[in-house]
Design brief:
heterodimer; A: mainly beta; five-stranded antiparallel beta sheet; B: mainly beta; 0% helix; 52% strand
Chain lengths: 114, 116
């Protein structure tokens, strides 16, 4: 049972344009969501997070939107840069009692073309 | 502040052998989690340790085990290796959650295990 899904395995975007990555989840107990960027043979790098008490969080070029009623979150990268080419994972966690376990989506490979 | 350190970076083992991987978390982080990444299954949670106790466990066979020491360093062990255990093993360290807001996990560079 895949509780976190990224339905787009890949995304190609022109440099300078917006990249929009989507993530859906099924577990209504999730209350904290994160986005990670990953290069091959390296560990994921934390990008941005959002708590379920918010619907938007912004950090520089990265903005995450959360729609709890739709169980959907998205990551916007504006403007996209060639260095953003990587695999992006969304992840989710449940409240404190369950520790820090993260459930990851399958990832979206982003290619930013110069 | 030093990041998460995993050793070794690469490892080649033979089927049936056992392997131990090591992880040193960020200073002050008491939670250490382990994940397995494979092309077909993505990032799968193995287990989490907090204050030397296993707090969470994923759906992996008993051949996968771990422990945490008093300095928060953690090791994971895989016994009787199978070809399917070939993967990138990632360690993540976190501060513990405080209240309703979650906390980020910071990952090491991983150990690439190849079983032949």
């Amino acid at each position: 049972d895949q509780q976190v899904k990224q339905n787009s395995p890949s995304l190609s975007v022109q440099e300078g344009r917006i990249s929009i990555l989507n993530c859906d989840y099924t577990n209504s107990m999730f209350d904290y969501f994160l986005w990670y960027k990953k290069y091959p043979a390296e560990g994921p790098t934390f990008l941005i997070s959002i708590s379920s008490i918010k619907d938007k969080n912004e950090d520089g070029r990265f903005t995450v939107f959360l729609n709890k009623s739709a169980k959907h979150l998205s990551l916007h990268i504006v403007p996209s840069q060639p260095g953003d080419s990587a695999v992006y994972f969304c992840a989710a966690s449940v409240p404190q009692a369950a520790g820090n376990k993260l459930t990851f989506g399958g990832g979206t490979r982003v290619l930013v073309k110069p | 502040k030093a990041g998460v350190t995993q050793t070794p970076r690469y490892l080649i083992k033979t089927r049936g052998q056992q392997v131990t991987l090591s992880c040193s978390p960020i200073s002050g982080h008491r939670s250490v989690s382990w994940y397995q990444q494979t092309p077909g299954q993505g990032l799968q949670f193995l287990f989490e340790y907090f204050s030397e106790t296993q707090r969470n466990k994923g759906n992996f066979p008993g051949r996968f085990s771990g422990r945490q020491f008093s300095n928060s360093r953690s090791e994971m062990n895989v016994s009787t290796l199978e070809l399917g255990d070939s993967a990138l093993y990632l360690c993540a360290s976190s501060q513990d959650r405080a209240g309703p807001v979650g906390t980020e996990a910071f990952f090491g560079q991983g150990t690439r295990l190849t079983v032949v």
